[in-house]
Amino acid sequence: MSSIKPVIKIGMVGAGKIADTHAEIIANHPALTLTAIADNNVAKARTFAERWGENIQAYDSAKALAEGSQIDAVHIVSPPDSHATLATFFTERKLPVFIEKPAAVTAAELEILSDIIEYTDAHLSVNRNSLYYPAFEKMCRILEKGALGPLRSVQAQYSKPLARHATTDLHQWAYRKPVNTLLERAVHPLAQIQWLTGPLIAVNAINTSPLETSNNNHLFQTTMFNLKSETIGAQLLFNIGETYPFWEIHAVCSDGVIKADMISNRTVVSNRNKWLAASEQFLGGRSLSKQLYDQSVKNFLSYATSFVSRRERSDPFYLSMKKSISVFYEELERAECQKANFKFAATIAHACLTAEQTMQGHKVNSEYTRKGEATEVDLAVLGGTGFIGSYIVEQCLKQGMTIRVVARDTHNLPSVFRHANIDIFSGDLCDPNVAKQAVKGAKKIINLVHGGGGQSASAVLKTMRGSADIIYKAATAAGVERFIHMGSIAGLYLGNRNEVITGDTPPDQKPHKRGDYARAKALTDIHLLALAAEGGPALTILRPAIVAGRGTTPSHSGLGIFNNEQHCMGWNKGTSNVPFVLASDVADAAVACLTADNISNKCFNLAGDVPMTARAYIEALKASTGRPFTFHPQSPIKVLTIENIKVLIKRVGGKKQPFHSLRDFKSRAKYAAFDCTDAKEALNWHPVSDKETFLKQAVHIYADPRQVKHP
């Protein structure tokens, strides 16, 4: 990045995942400083501020940030449907704005922003980091030299998974309308195509048949774009929700082809040489091999150097973001008008909106939120919009209960949450005021709040135990009768082959030797049991084993380390039975706790009755899906050695990170056996015991209906 003399104070709106990348780039730039962060979830904003600097101020809104801080520019990294409103708000205050893509989500919003730029001196720039991937930049440099002749056409393919596609957790903005996946992801390859071809003047799109998601919406996984500029045609095959990431663009010239691979960070050239055809094939193959080898070695050395030293990140995504932000501030320093930047981004957004016409006629669920309408309910399900919550709510509705559901995100929920007996609202249950409202007038509570996300052990513990403490104390003050808390077997020590685990088995007595999540689970259980002993709602803690079923991921961390979705590096040899339990069986146990007698201040483990090893599960998954899933057996000592070598390398490079313990990895291997007789008797609980029924609900659900079976 170029050196900019005055330090520019930056405010940021939105504290999501991409905000961390912006903050890291700003922190590594000597002329930029992040001074303020705003997010509707102010607790999230405060956590973000603590993570990135002592002097960063946290606010609960863009308005509060604008009025309470002195900033020179603002980054808008909030959900896309807020971009246009926020950009207008800050440009009216004469602040330079850097917006994450897309700039806007409707044609009307794009027109408003275009007018702002056209008739004012506003500096309004849209992130177009896809243009600055090293592989794409190299492609552009080769084209500029003209050694392959004029560009004739462009073909691109973008195929990437969305992390939550395999689950029912479809609350993200990208899933609320079919076009949103285009506006959020397709803009990347479309921007690259337009950069090569010039402004797009014609867009046609074809979609495959839509897939219905669990929330009764539709997701178009494949969109085929036919594009045209003044002189050049292009095609884009856009796939979303696929399992194997693939992002390439081919520039077809009169005398050769350039291929840029954004994920592997390689650019290779195929062209003619002076030899006859047979020799040309050999020499051309050797040339391609050398190009791939040289760039792969360079990429590895760059990664290794960055990993073991204090060097700034060097992965392609980070470098592209760094360059995009750099260009914005360089143009700002030169007081250049950024009309061209916005017009470029607007054309890309219009291409996505044009493609939307092929998606019309398919139903879309709107947000459904009723904030605290019911004064009294039979049950409050907190953190209840996830997969287990859906099962619980469905069962309780069948029994005629009135239910209040509280979660951070209430967008794009399954139809069960639209029932007339449900009162639902959005709120952060780490906030005592929200917790008080959530439990008010509720006779019983099922607490599913996870709270386990965080960048450090202290952050995980703070959110997990902290939210449980706040909610239980609020329930005590409100006179709640029963409090069912959903824990996890991760909080137990499971590394003793000779031990049989029951509900009376206490949480791990050495939590400080466990990983962040397991430690927090153990300490949360201990804390809640201590609170209940002092008085309050009758407490029952349920500890599910490895949960399987609709809404869960096939790549469960309870089986091993998934370096990618396909390969499972086991916690053990994979020959001992793994304690699986179906999500529906977990819900059965939770609902039973609402009426069962003599379960006050007790814990119950929930492990199913179908014995299955990790190897057998992976093989069943492979057979059902047709995908090459592979289980790689390991021992806890081997896992410990590998993981601690990684830690050692990071510590040598100056990165503070504690070493892992053998106790933690032996527990993850789950050598101990489970006896859930106490849960079965006290709750009249009968988990699925038939293997075929288990496989149907736990494995066969991942079979792809699009799979073509050849005769």
Q: What keyword list fits this structure?
A:
seven-stranded mixed β-sheet; 711 residues; 38% helix; globular; seven-stranded parallel β-sheet; alpha/beta; 29 strands
Written account of the structure:
By secondary structure, the chain is an alpha/beta fold. The protein has 20 helices and 29 strands. The N and C termini lie far apart (57 Å).
Task: Tell me briefly what this model is.
Helix content is 38%, strand content 20%.
Oligomer: single chain
Radius of gyration: 27 Å
Q: Give the strand order, joined by hyphens, for the main sheet.
A: 8-11-12-7-13-14-15
SS class: alpha/beta
Overall pLDDT score: 88
Distance between the termini: 57 Å
Question: What topology emerges from the helices and strands here?
Answer:
Blueprint: E1 8-13, H1 17-27, E2 32-38, H2 42-52, E3 57-59, H3 62-68, E4 73-76, H4 83-91, E5 97-99, H5 107-119, E6 124-126, H6 134-145, E7 151-160, H7 180-197, E8 202-207, E9 211-212, E10 218-219, E11 222-228, E12 233-240, E13 246-253, E14 256-261, E15 266-271, H8 277-308, H9 316-333, H10 339-355, E16 377-382, H11 387-398, E17 403-407, E18 422-426, H12 432-439, E19 442-447, H13 457-478, E20 482-486, E21 500-501, H14 516-533, E22 538-544, E23 546-548, E24 560-562, E25 567-570, E26 580-582, H15 583-592, E27 602-606, H16 614-625, E28 630-632, H17 636-652, H18 662-668, E29 673-674, H19 677-683, H20 691-698
Parallel strand pairs: 1-2, 1-4, 2-3, 4-5, 5-6, 7-12, 16-17, 16-19, 17-18, 19-20, 20-22, 21-29, 22-27, 23-26, 25-28
Antiparallel strand pairs: 7-13, 8-11, 9-10, 11-12, 13-14, 14-15, 24-25
